[in-house]
Amino acid sequence: MGKLVLRPKQVNKTTGCGPIYITYFVCGKTIEKSTGIIIPDSSWNAVSRKVVSHKDSSRLNGEINEIKRNLDEKFAKYPGIMTPEIARRILNGQQVYGLEDPNEIDFVQYTLDNQRRRYEIHDIGYSVLYNSILAIERFRKFLANTKGEGFISLSSMSISVIDEYKTHRLKEICSDTLNKELAPLKFAISYGVQNGLMDIRKFGDLDDIYIKKERSYNGDKSPEVSNIHYLSHEQMAAFIKLYPTVKFDRTREIMDMFLFSFYACGLRISDIATLEWSHIDFERQMMTKILVKGKNCHEVTLNERAMEILDRWKKKNYSKRFVFNLLPDDFVFSDKQNQELCDKCAILSKLIPCNYHIDPRI
């Protein structure tokens, strides 16, 4: 619910008059807009939030209460997660999805705003947002080239449009890359269905939007792009046998990171870099860590081989904080928007040398 206020700092010192604002408190931020009604400071009662001792008190109170009632109704009707950006759009009279006719809402803009809203509430990081915007703009360009305009309403979107786009893009990119480009479109459709703006019958199973891949490894030197590659038991055993024979200690350390990732049920390299000693319970032989990408808790019991690697690195005494010494002990993780990308770049810069050890025979 909004509040009507007259701010002393906004009062003109010469005339003694100031504008009445309507304010909303959203996610720790005050979002406000002037009602356009200006009165003398002495005519405003800050307790009752009404115009008093004014010749037009009744009319002015009626006008500001009508403005407040209309805005409060829009806030109450909004079906999604309220954010400061959504609040500003409502106050400024801009298009807000969930309050308008689906026939008039542009799906492309809806998808862009959806991703920006996810970023604003920290559901995705900056790099995901950046890549999503590029993918969505490619979809807009496809619509412009094939439909004559880069606009398609929420009610007009269907699986057939997605299928046409997939056929077009597969001429230029592989299925894995295309699935990443389709992710923001799928999320927007799912969100639109949940909020009653799109008809699920036009899409069926939303997972069908993606191109399904055959998850197998056939051992060929040049497997098809659609196949996902796995090491066989024999190949993994051969890799482990190379450990004592490699030339450089640093190569062995990189192998330690790979093997620990394997023993810890599959850690991304970003999680190897950010693994801290505080995440390891040596007594219980347990690792508990919030994963960098999914932000979910990864808890796994470590086998003897994983513990041997940890014991080995404990004796190295490289870092008091990070297990594999890929980041400085004073490295600071931050949720600030401008710092988030810098943190990720700092992590990646530490990992680039790992690529030089990809062949353990070096």
Concise structural overview:
The protein has 3 domains: 3-91, no CATH class; 102-209; 233-357, no CATH class.
What does this structure look like?
This protein is an alpha+beta fold. The chain has three domains: 3-91, no CATH class; 102-209; 233-357, no CATH class. It contains eleven helices and eight strands. The protein has helices at residues 57-77, 84-91, 107-120, 126-147, 159-169, 175-194, 233-241, 249-263, 269-273, 304-316, 337-351, and strands at 3-6, 17-26, 29-40, 44-45, 50-51, 280-281, 286-290, 297-301. It has a three-stranded antiparallel beta sheet with strand order 1-2-3. Strands 6-7-8 form a three-stranded antiparallel beta sheet, with no helix packed on it. Strands 4-5 form a two-stranded antiparallel sheet. A hairpin with a 2-residue loop joins strand 2 and strand 3. Helix 4 packs across helix 6 (175-194) and helix 8 (249-263) packs across helix 10. The longest helix is centred in the middle third of the chain and has 22 residues, at 126-147. Residues 221-226 and 358-362 have low confidence and may be disordered.
| Domains (count) | 3
- Average pLDDT works out at 83
Q: What is the chain-wise order of helices and strands?
A: EEEEEHHHHHHHHHEEEHH
Structural class: alpha+beta
